[in-house]
Write a structure and sequence with these properties.
Layout (H helix, E strand, L loop, with lengths): L5 H12 L5 H8 L3 H14 L18 H12 L5 H8 L5 H10 L21
Helix pairs in contact: 1-2, 1-3, 2-3
Length: 126
């Protein structure tokens, strides 16, 4: 779908602010839905702009580029760090699932590891 022209957006909001009708009335007048009128009025009030907004849908970008190199170095220096610790250390804004998928893509595999030392009690000899 193509976004509405800026001229039409401005005319719709101006008509509403001038009290020329309700959302439904203005929607019928400008051949748009009632909810589009409400969305434009709310966007103008809350954001102060009528520009079309870009929505990021679907999968978010994985860790790439410079941050990927920092991640590789962090993996070498801190092999036992958790996913959350890696995200915080690198200052990333991604989910743990994204970090996990990035590590898998880089070829890192992890086994569960208890964070306590192994019991080193020797067997008692008879």
């Amino acid at each position: 779908m193509t976004p509405l022209s800026m001229d039409l957006r401005k005319r719709i909001v101006a008509a509403y602010l001038n009290g020329e009708g309700s959302h439904a009335t203005l929607g019928a007048r400008f051949c748009v839905s009632r909810s589009v009128v409400g969305k434009l009025v709310r966007q103008d009030r809350e954001q102060g702009t009528l520009e079309p907004q870009v929505h990021l849908r679907g999968r978010k970008a994985a860790v790439r580029g410079e941050k990927e190199e920092e991640l590789r170095q962090h993996l070498q220096e801190h092999p036992d760090a958790t996913l959350r610790e890696r995200i915080e250390a690198l200052g990333l804004e991604c989910s743990q699932k994204t970090m996990w998928e990035t590590l898998r893509r880089l070829g890192w595999r992890f086994k569960k590891n208890r964070r306590v030392p192994r019991n080193r009690i020797e067997k008692m000899l008879p």
